[in-house]
Design brief:
Blueprint: H1 2-7, E1 9-21, E2 27-39, E3 42-48, H2 54-61, E4 69-74, E5 77-78, E6 86-89, H3 101-112, H4 116-129, H5 145-157, E7 163-167, H6 175-190, E8 198-202, H7 206-212, E9 215-220, E10 225-231, H8 243-257, H9 286-300, E11 303-305, H10 306-312, H11 317-330, E12 333-336, E13 339-342, H12 344-351, H13 354-368, H14 370-381, E14 386-388, H15 389-396, H16 402-419, E15 423-425, E16 430-432
Parallel strand pairs: 3-8, 3-9, 6-7, 7-8
Antiparallel strand pairs: 1-2, 1-4, 4-5, 9-10, 11-13, 12-13, 14-16, 15-16
Helix pairs in contact: 3-4, 3-5, 4-5, 7-8, 9-12, 12-13, 13-14, 13-16, 15-16
The structure holds adenosine-5'-diphosphate and magnesium ion (MG).
């Protein structure tokens, strides 16, 4: 019995850490202690905020990167490099513009040394399977984005992968095209028209995950880890209006928006999450925050279901989480059980006129965002009340990679300018107290 079970394991990830070199001395830990087992016949969806290491994990599994610690076994064999049997679909496929659809799909087989006649047969079959019949001799530039992505799928499927990895394969497509492609893929899978025994895909679309997956992995961030593994025992086809489906979606939203250490029963005593100087502030413009708060206040009386908030404001999951995260940090709202609820400060902010709004924002910003506080203090203490952007950048680089430091500082400066707690001259990259008092 045990033996049989282990032979059904496609993928076994054991205590995997991954860090990248940040500079000569420092390492950036991106994935921490990942443990996960995937069985034959499973479709697994991987959800998590941007930067939580999802793509990195896929690249580790595909053998494109090496782990820093731990092991990954594919079919009981240690992964040491690209493994025969695993194919990957990327967000945007790099099709060769000078090759036809047929030649682009055939490419994967040439690399495997498949004889010409068999190549031809399998290529035509894959093209047919993915609904590109008749486009064999077209060039990529003649195809729509959705069709190009189909070529990408055909190229991944033509090698008959045992395990198919997909990294946000639909996110560059419009909603309808994505849904079509996904349901086509699901049909192929259910009718067993491919040899594929497992699909692991990254998505930022929660409903997409709930719609197709047998298991959903939810990643937490900084460093990335498996926060939850949800087994979904719901028959296909699933429908979005089904009660159980809605419950699942709500459950995922909750997991993705609450802090892991929050005790659900004590959230009434909620305090804004204390963050450090090098915290990865999500980059959301003040105007967006204002708009969202107004929406929650006016349309939903100060409390709103997260999926509804996302839907009615056309937010994808990344945007939604960035917004809820910063609203929580600033103390304007809190998230619990799949709902977002405005705090007293949030309501006061929404009702205030523009001047008062800036005042409230300034208070919350200085109170809750150490980086904003630090900038203000340095400016206050200096004789000329000026400091270069570079001064704060280098301080942030002790905590973050160069590009993250750049992004986080830009965000803090935008908010500080909105709140008028300091001014910024982008010609000279200088912060000052020129306008504010
Ligand atoms: P996700 O796919 O969840 O958005 P990624 O796996 O792309 O996240 O990235 C996770 C973190 O690892 C990010 O902070 C990113 O900047 C960092 N990272 C990814 N690849 C590299 C690399 N080759 N070198 C340095 N840092 C990297
Ligand atoms: Mg990614």
């Amino acid at each position: 019995m045990l033996e049989e079970k282990s032979s059904n394991i496609i993928l076994d990830i054991k205590s995997v850490d991954k860090s990248f070199k940040k500079d000569k001395r420092q390492e950036l830990l991106v994935l921490k202690d990942i443990n996960f087992t995937m069985y034959e016949g499973e479709i697994v969806a991987l959800l998590g905020k941007s930067g939580s290491g999802k793509s990195t994990l896929l690249r580790l599994i595909a053998g494109l990167l090496n782990s820093t610690r731990g092991e990954i076994f594919y079919r009981n064999k240690l992964v040491r490099g690209p493994a025969h049997g695993i194919s990957m679909v990327f967000q945007q496929f790099a099709l060769m513009p000078w090759l036809t659809v047929f030649q682009n799909v055939e490419l994967g087989l040439e690399a495997l040394g498949v004889p010409r006649e068999e190549r031809r047969e399998r290529t035509l079959k894959a093209i047919d399977m993915i609904g590109l019949d008749g486009f064999e001799s077209a060039y990529p530039r003649e195809l729509s984005g959705g069709m190009r992505q189909r070529v990408g799928f055909a190229r991944a499927l033509v090698v008959n992968p045992d395990l198919l990895l997909m990294d946000e394969p639909f996110s560059a497509l419009d909603v309808l095209t994505a849904e079509n492609l996904l349901s086509d893929l699901l049909n192929l899978w259910q009718e067993k028209k491919t040899n594929t025994k497992g699909i692991l895909f990254v998505t930022h679309d929660i409903e997409e995950a709930a719609w197709v997956a047998d298991k959903i992995l939810i990643f937490g961030s900084d460093p990335g880890y498996v926060r939850a593994e949800i087994k979904v025992d719901m028959p296909h086809p699933r429908t979005e209006n089904d009660e159980e489906f809605r419950k699942l979606v709500d459950h995922i939203y909750t997991l993705m928006t609450t802090k892991p250490d929050v005790d659900e029963k004590r959230v009434t005593e909620y305090r804004p999450k204390a963050i450090g100087l090098g915290y990865r502030l999500p980059d959301v413009e003040p105007g967006v925050l204002t708009g969202i708060l107004e929406f929650i206040y006016e349309e939903h009386d100060g409390r709103c279901d997260l999926p509804v908030l996302a839907d009615e404001n056309y937010l994808d999951a990344d945007e939604l989480f960035a917004i809820t995260e910063i609203l929580e940090i600033l103390g304007f709202a809190r998230v619990q059980k799949g709902d977002i609820e405005m705090t007293k400060q949030g309501k006061a902010f929404t009702q205030a006129d523009i001047l008062k709004k800036k005042e409230i924002f300034a208070t919350q910003l200085l109170k809750n965002v150490p980086l904003a506080r630090r900038i203000r203090r340095v400016l206050d203490e200096r004789h000329n009340h000026k400091a270069s952007r570079a001064r704060f950048l280098s301080e942030l680089e002790d905590h973050l990679s160069e590009s993250e430091a750049e992004r986080v500082l830009t965000t803090a400066i935008d908010w500080g300018r909105y709140a008028e707690i300091f001014a910024y001259d982008s010609n000279t990259d200088t912060l000052s107290l020129e306008n504010p008092n």
